């Protein structure tokens, strides 16, 4: 049964999509079957996976509204290595159209039942808002991955998110947990970043991933090629960091699993 993880933070530009796309590629590289769901009308995870969001007949929008199934809508990323449930701007309309539908918060969860045995991980790239789309992501997930930049207002935003998670847990999804907090675009020479990172570890302990994602130009430029950075430059620091994150996550869920490190080097 797939582990369903929502990559979420209501703040934009913190690395949600970069994390979703590169973690999808990295989990595949350590031999896991992955479905990536783009739940953001901006369609960045779709484009970043090499799928042209302007050319799509069906997207996650139809899945949420119930007029298509996940099986009908999913595509292989052009690299062929993970599956993608794509999105484009049409999804912005779902926010309003869902309001009057039954089970509006849990429609993604219901739709995923059909495929959850086919994957080891289902990753959901959430939009930068605490809206009904994000709520569908949080209701479908068993845990959240929270990418964050270690800057001044980060902890404040985090407490809003933690409160939302508590509410979702109380009303819709009692099992929802924080899988981990991921420090992104990290610059160890920045003293403020170090301080925020220390505070984060004080509050959240081992729920802060050991893996830190550095600021890295390969991660920033990969979307312009429409591929995860791993397929573009597998030795870059950014790529290696996301591979390390994939191993850290896999080890949490499958502690007995073989050395993914070695598996990766064999590919
Ligand atoms: P979000 O999905 O949270 O809005 P993105 O993943 O789109 O954030 O990242 C915002 C911007 O920062 C993008 O231009 C992306 O390429 C860039 N970026 C993200 N992570 C990194 C990183 N580790 N190093 C350099 N640039 C990054
Ligand atoms: Mg995004």
TrEMBL record:
Domain annotation AAA: ranges: 2-178
Highest taxon above the source species: Bacteria
InterPro entries: AAA_dom, DNA_Partitioning_ATPase, P-loop_NTPase
Protein name: Chromosome segregation ATPase
Species assigned in the record: Nitrosospira multiformis (strain ATCC 25196 / NCIMB 11849 / C 71)
């Amino acid at each position: 049964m797939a582990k369903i993880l929502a990559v979420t933070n209501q703040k934009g530009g913190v690395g949600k999509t970069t994390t979703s796309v590169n973690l999808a590629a990295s989990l595949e590289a350590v031999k896991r079957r992955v479905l990536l769901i783009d739940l953001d009308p901006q369609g960045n995870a779709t484009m970043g996976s090499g799928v042209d969001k302007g050319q799509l007949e069906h997207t996650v929008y139809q899945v949420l509204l119930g007029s298509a199934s996940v099986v009908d809508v999913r595509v292989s990323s052009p690299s062929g290595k993970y599956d993608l449930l794509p999105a484009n701007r049409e999804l912005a309309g779902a926010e309003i159209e869902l309001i009057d539908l039954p089970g509006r918060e849990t429609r993604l969860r219901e739709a995923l039942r059909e495929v959850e045995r086919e994957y080891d991980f289902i990753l959901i790239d959430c939009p930068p808002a605490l809206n009904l789309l994000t709520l569908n992501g949080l209701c479908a997930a068993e845990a959240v991955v929270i990418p964050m930049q270690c800057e001044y207002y980060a902890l404040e935003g985090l407490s809003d998110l933690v409160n939302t998670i508590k509410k979702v847990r109380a009303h819709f999804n009692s099992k929802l947990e924080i899988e981990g907090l991921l420090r992104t675009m990290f610059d160890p020479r920045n003293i403020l970043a170090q301080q925020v990172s220390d505070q984060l570890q004080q509050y959240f302990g081992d729920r802060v991933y050991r893996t830190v994602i550095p600021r890295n130009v390969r991660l920033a430029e990969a979307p312009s090629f429409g591929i995860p950075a791993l397929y573009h430059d597998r030795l870059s620091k950014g790529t290696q960091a996301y591979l390390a994150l994939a191993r850290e996550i896999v080890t949490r869920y499958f502690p007995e699993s073989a050395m993914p490190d070695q598996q990766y080097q064999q590919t």
